[in-house]
Amino acid sequence: NAGVMQNPRHLVRRRGQEARLRCSPMKGHSHVYWYRQLPEEGLKFMVYLQKENIIDESGMPKERFSAEFPKEGPSILRIQQVVRGDSAAYFCASSSTPRETQYFGPGTRLLVL
Amino acid sequence: KQEVTQIPAALSVPEGENLVLNCSFTDSAIYNLQWFRQDPGKGLTSLLLIQSSQREQTSGRLNASLDKSSGRSTLYIAASQPGDSATYLCAVGGTGGGADGLTFGKGTHLIIQP
């Protein structure tokens, strides 16, 4: 029973490029959450999605960031026109139902040069 | 806005000792509380989940308690081992972090000396 999978594990982008982060939830989980961990800071909630729906995006920056969880395939967190301040570890978590245990992936470490 | 505080920020103890990590939160309107461990450069491993209606949960050498009315939780680790060295994170589900997102503390960095 594979856990939450994220790829790539490490991503390097130059300022102005786009970053696409992928998350495959645990088998049977239809609830996906994205979090960001900035250097020397705690994890911050970004967005919560169910299949084909964004349920809560209260933690997402208003510009350049978007997320989707299509009917088929992984959830995608997309960052357009990256800036150095976007350098962070991005974690995805999944759960079988809302408000139950969230299981985290290994994270994608984004470095913007 | 929900805020989660963890004390101490760092802790170093000899192997074999029992220890307590503390977590406090400002808004008691939570639906659950989770404890995680994070190893350097790795993801989070879920340790224990306590629903808001529960007082404590146990798993092996770990015991977590929840006092929702006072906004506190503790993680008790018995007979600590060097393999317990990690950062321990407390997170609450409820207000502030989005309806179903978690609000995290900054963690307690634990070192168990062999």
What does this structure look like?
The complex is a heterodimer of chains A (113) and B (114). Chain A has 113 residues and is mostly beta strands. Chain A contains no helices and eleven strands. Chain A has strands at 5-7, 10-13, 19-24, 31-37, 43-50, 53-56, 65-68, 75-79, 88-95, 103-104, 108-112. In chain A, strand 5 (43-50) and strand 6 form a beta hairpin. Chain A is globular and about 35 Å long. Chain B is built from no helices and eleven strands. In chain B, the strands form two sheets. In chain B, strands 2, 4, 5, 9, 10 and 11 form a six-stranded mixed sheet that branches. A five-stranded antiparallel sheet of chain B has the order 1-3-8-7-6, with no helix packed on it. The termini of chain B are far apart. The mean pLDDT of chain B is 93. The interface between A and B is medium-sized, with 28 and 25 residues.
